[in-house]
Specification:
alpha+beta
């Protein structure tokens, strides 16, 4: 993920950026990729069972709590 954005000229450690996740948030690519930066603004995510939409994400407000998203996604199947 870092390399992809670096090639696009975006520093994901200092610049806010938006993204859409496709697949399972508990998975390595999507779930762990989201934890690489506190600047991530997730506007939408979906897999075969769930849809998540946030048209106005605030990375600064979400900050450290964003790391709680992955464990929460793991527990969705157990509800």
């Amino acid at each position: 993920m870092k390399r992809h954005f670096r090639e696009l000229g975006t520093d994901i450690q200092t610049q806010d950026f938006t993204c859409v996740g496709i697949g399972d948030m508990a998975g390595d690519v999507f779930g762990n990729g989201m934890l690489l930066s506190q600047k991530t603004q997730l506007v939408a995510a979906f897999n075969h069972m769930h849809i998540f939409i946030d048209p106005a994400p605030d990375a600064h407000r979400a900050g450290p709590s964003a790391s709680a998203v992955r464990p929460a996604a793991l527990n969705l199947e157990r509800l």
